[in-house]
Amino acid sequence: MRTPLLWLATLALGLALCSQISERAPDEQAADITGWLQQTGKYFEEGEYDSSFALAQRVIIAAEKTANWEAWGNAQIHYLGSCYYLNQSAEAAATFPQLEQLGRAHIHPDSTFWGGYFNVAGAIFDQLGNYEEAIRYGLKEIAFYEKSGDRAAQAIASNNIGAYYLRRGDYDRALEYTQSALQLYRSNPKTDPADLAWTYGNLGAIWYRKKDYPRAIANAHEALSMLEKHFPGELPHDYIVAYNDLANVYVENGEPEKALEYLQKALAVHKKNGIEREIENVWHNLGYAYRMMGRYPEATAYLKKAIERYRPNHPNLGKAYRHLGIVAQRQGDLRGALACHQQALRSLTDSFPHQDILANPAPQRVNAYFDFLFTLRDKGETLRELAAAESNPVFLEAALSTYDLAAGVLDSMRAEYQEGSRQFWNEEAQPIMENAIALAMQLHRNTGDLRYLEKAFEYAEKNKALLLAEALRDAAARQQAGIPDSVLEQEKSLKIDIAFYKRQIFREQQRPQPDTTKILLWQKNILERRRANEALLARLEQSYPEYYRIKYNAPPLTISALQQRLPPNTSLLQFFKGDRELFVFYFDQHTAKGLSLPTDSNFVHAFERLLRQLRDRDQAAEQGRSAAAIAQFAADAHSLYRVLLAPVVAKIPEKLVVVPDGNLAYLPFELLVSKEPSAPTNYAELPFLLRQTVLRYEYSASLALTQPTSSRTNQLFAGYAPAYDEDSVVATSSRGDQRNCRDADAATFAALHSNQAEVSQIARLFGGQSYLGKTATEANFKQRAHEPRVLHFAMHGFLNDCDPMYSGLAFSRLQGRKGGDTRAIGEDTNNGSSNDEANDGFLHAYEIYNLKMNAELAVLSACNTGQGQLAKGEGVISLARAFKYAGCPNVLMSLWQADDEATAHIMQDFYRHLKKGMGKAEAIRQAKLDYLSAKTRNHPFFWGAFVLIGDDAPISRPSSFGLLHALAMALAGVGVLLWVRRSRSRAR
After folding, report:
1. Rounded to the nearest 10 degrees, what angle do helices 394-416 and 419-447 cross at?
2. Which residues contact 137 (CB under 8 A, 6 or more apart)?
């Protein structure tokens, strides 16, 4: 909430102006320079920036002439600060190269000049909208003050860099730096309350952008209450910012009348204190509030007032034009709207012929991603409306080009942001991609041109499992680039530390009265390790160009490439679920189709009813056998088949790969019914899709076509079947269904009566190692996670409804283990004290992400391992996804609460078929068919939960040649050892 140049006031000394220096003695010249410098500071402190600017220039010339570099540096800071407040940042930035060259030559690196220079340089680039450079200088400022130990200056620097990341759109980084500033301020009892108010205001702005409006309102009110308590009638600028922040969040929270109240308060402060500077921001926000209220004349008037006042390079100018364009579009002035869109794009990037409404910029540098991206979205929508209004298909082509540019901007953002912010923008991009797909499909229908179907599929594929696909590409790139293990271990250690401190924060926040001191310190530790990890990644990309090339140069998947890579007799069905439409793409080696599917209320009701039946154990066991229940299930399953498959699948293929989207990821397609029987009396009679094709699933088409990797280990199987408390409250017939926002609790997991028999029988059948009861510990698994080709977990799973990273698997707990935290606050993780924490019996998803596995297959024979949070553009954030991320390409997972006894039967048959040489998908299909035909409890609840994500290749058996070779090598080693011993005995 406060200016980032606070520290400049300390340089103001307030002496009188002296005369010129033209031909004076050196001592007199030095006295002149000192006097001028003092007066420069006084002018600056009093807000007389024109006078400060002019006098600082004089001092710079005189100080350079007399080699008075200390004075030269102080004068440069005042000159740049005056440029900032006079809106002459472009002129100031032009002086940086020569300034830095002279500074490095004459000023010591530890001089306070550099801290001040980094601060003001960051502020100047921020004012110019060049957030990348602002962040670069902000990071230099933080490093400088960390080295000097100036915690107050560190806090200012952290707040500023948080603001730069906020405006750039990387909200997770913004939050981390601003929370670090809060920790620094709160740890100092002498902190100025105005600094705390500033920080709370910044936090409110970040939560506003992250769309967490309750937190945004709470932080903004906290900032305002601190101002009212400590500075009544003072700090008018801070009050203005607080009122603007509250107004913005109340608009988004659906309370525009409250927003208008706060904006009127801001205008009143401006008027009372005679403050003209930045009054355009209030006008802008009034225009936005009136726009959201549908009061377009008032919106237009205020937005135009703001635009007239903004300077040409003001960061908010593009935003104001964007809002004005939306107002024009809503009023039906489509060409006027396009003119505003073009003005917005011109102000947000390099110049281009914006007068041509069909032209788009070719941005070489975009920092204000939020406004640039959404201006492109608005322009695309307006062009599509104009095409319909004027019956001109040229506008459709222009709209498609605009969406192409938006997709490129999204690619840039995903490459530069950390995972949390990338996921946020994946979700924000979903409506844009939906519009783009709809437009490409419209052009395909209009022209029959396959290029447009290709474009629609490209958009859909771009928005599939982006973070997962990048992680897998990253792992492959590291392996191929030959990055040393020591470097990878260093990165792994940093990631484990970050995950540890995140979990500590998560746990503390669950307490009735969280310890904010601990939380803030853990946040600081996260930030330190995050910066170290970012620096490490930057070195990797610079030192290993092959790594960079493989990671970032993944070509888009074309339809022809997809068809060539599809295995024989295999088809692929991919969905894209938007807010308004559901799209489907179907490919085999000779066919390519794409459609928008009708998903009316009948479809929605059938879908929800079917999922309720599948997830309700009691209903399945008690009412599920009735003729009415069977008929309802058959009707719903057939209704979904007619919508999801029948329009594009003329003939059911021998093998089918399904790439679901949205809540379709919770539906086992093998349970769909291709024909609705007249009066079914048993589930075994239904024509399930399971009977007609071999089904498998994947997160994207690209991942579905990845060639199976051969395992690098000779151990075939390892299974884990823990023991639980017999007196626990969870029903023993199911493999856990703990769902809440708290961390796992051992007391909630009851004994399973079939899991140990399941694992031991499979180990005997398939050949491998079983860890039963007390030996099935998290520690044993982690020590051996990289060894087997097949990992099997017959245990309880638990879901966290608030954060999927804290979902996991429950192993046996070591005797006397209480879980809990054994590490001192702030203590490093690499000193061995984290063993209790890391091996507490709960294998969380975040821990799986940091493991490295060589397994071809992970079988998650537990509850809900395929469930989790739905993330737009990424899919279900589940335990299964965590195993894929850790390097296991195939995961057999459950979509609901698995029945213990039924699961044991299905798993034994699954492995029996695998041993015969069946592929993974065919083996689980046959195991389900076996169960369906042999068991009386044949409601799909009992046998339909498990689905395969991955390929259908058979499990590769350890090579007999490899074993013989290893044996021969071992015998040779023994022979050499005996020979050496004999030689030594002879020498004696």
Report:
1. 160
2. 118, 119, 121, 122, 125
DSSP β-bridge partners for residue 717: 790
Distances, alpha carbon 703 to alpha carbons 450, 557, 885, in Å? 23, 10, 12
d(CA 484, CA 221): 50
Structure tokens at 516: 């904010």
Instruction: Please tell me the number of Cα atoms within 13 Å of 986 on its side-chain side.
Output: 6
Listed residue (279, 328, 327, 330) closest to 306, CA to CA: 279
- Give 11-50 pLDDT, tens digit per residue: 333 323 333 333 444 555 666 788 888 888 888 888 899 9
Per-residue b or e along 242-259, where b marks 16 or more CB atoms closer than 10 Å to that residue's CB: bbbbbbbbbbbbeebebb
Q: What are phi and psi of 831, to 5 degrees?
A: -110, 10
Instruction: Check: CB of residue 523 under 8 Å from CB of residue 176.
Output: yes
Helices (H) and strands (E) in the chain, counts: 39, 17
943 or 477, which is more confident:
943
- Helix, strand, coil: what percent of the chain each, to 5? 60, 10, 30
Angle at 665 between CA 664 and CA 671, to 5 degrees: 75
Per the CB < 8 A criterion, the answer to whether 579 and 594 are in contact is no
Which DSSP letter does residue 825 get? T
Give CA 257 to chain center in angstroms: 34
Q: How far apart are CA 301 and CA 298, in angstroms?
A: 5
Strands 946-949 and 890-894, by their bridges, are antiparallel
Q: What is the DSSP code string of 45-85?
A: HTT-HHHHHHHHHHHHHHHHHTT-HHHHHHHHHHHHHHHHH
Residue labelled with tokens 């884990």: 720
How high is the pLDDT of residue 875?
52
Beta 796-800 vs 890-894: how paired, if at all? unpaired
Cα 499 to Cα 501: distance, rounded to the nearest angstrom = 6
The amino acid at residue 404 is D
Q: pLDDT of 796-826, one tens digit each?
A: 888 776 777 788 899 987 654 444 333 333 3
Q: SS3 for 673?
A: strand
Q: Give 767-773 contacts, CB < 8 A, sequence gap 24+.
A: 767/716, 767/717, 768/715, 768/716, 768/717, 768/718, 768/719, 769/715, 769/717, 769/718, 769/719, 770/718, 770/719, 770/721, 771/718, 771/719, 771/720, 771/721, 772/721, 772/723, 773/721, 773/722, 773/723, 773/812
Residue 718, SS3 per DSSP? strand
Q: Which residues pair with 337 in a beta bridge?
A: none
